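debug: dumping io for the single-chain case to check the tokenizer round-trip. Nothing else runs in this session.
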Amino acid sequence: MPTSPPCACNSIDELAAALQAKGYFADRRLATAVFLALKLQRPLLLEGEPGVGKTELAKALARVLARELLRLQCFDGLEQREALYEWNYAAQLLHLRAAEGTASTDALEQQVYQPRYLVRRPLLQALEAPAPGALLLIDEVDRADEPFEAFLLEYLGEYQVSIPELGTIRAAVPPVTILTSNRTRDLSDAIKRRCLYHWLDYPERERELAIVRTLVPQAPQQLADQVAAFVQQLRTGAHARHFQRAPGIAETVEWARALVALDTVTLDPEIVVDTAGILFKQRDDVAALDSALAEQALQAAGI
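debug: decoded output
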């Protein structure tokens, strides 16, 4: 549970500074989107390539706001009971056996369908969280199917859910809600209309350099500069066409840590090839980063 005092975040600049203090460097557009989501109490949908920092934003924001982070990881075949609630059937059965013959069928039914027999999942936990409320991360919502999207509409639009046996449960404190999508498929217009939207792109060189310096403080300044410049070449330079998927921010940081562990002073083709498996997670991408391509990218980065 968060223990640090929450940030009041009365301005975009204050919010951006608070996120940076937690190790997350948001540009002005992203900080504006988050600020408006907080002020308007609207869900925020973040779309972007894997590794650009969508999930990390939710984690950092939870720390800034001193709210409990609840995470619903979406996947193909995700069902409502895994996202909202299910009944504790074993406890209900024990109650029925203990009360057998002491009450009518209707009375027994009312007894077993009580909140104490609910197994609460992330959506319900978020709605019932006490002040200051929770931050709900609905991660990779594009991996779920369309019926699950339809199920989410009531929650996203009104911060409430309907449980047949208990009725409608509304949030006493609206949860901060962030949805992420890698855009493996298009989400429905109904989902998008209920959310504020932001496309999160890879950071420019200076912002990525600031991230590396903050998260890998033991890296020499020259090495951090070279790491940021080289990764930018792999993403946006003439060599980007050789790769199926560009390295994410997490890969940049992990690569910098690995280079420090290897006592690397300056980048060269040999060390790049030897550590390519940290930058890329696809076999073809690792194979594409051979010595010749590494040397060309290093030269293009001014190294």
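debug: round-trip ok. The mean pLDDT is 90.
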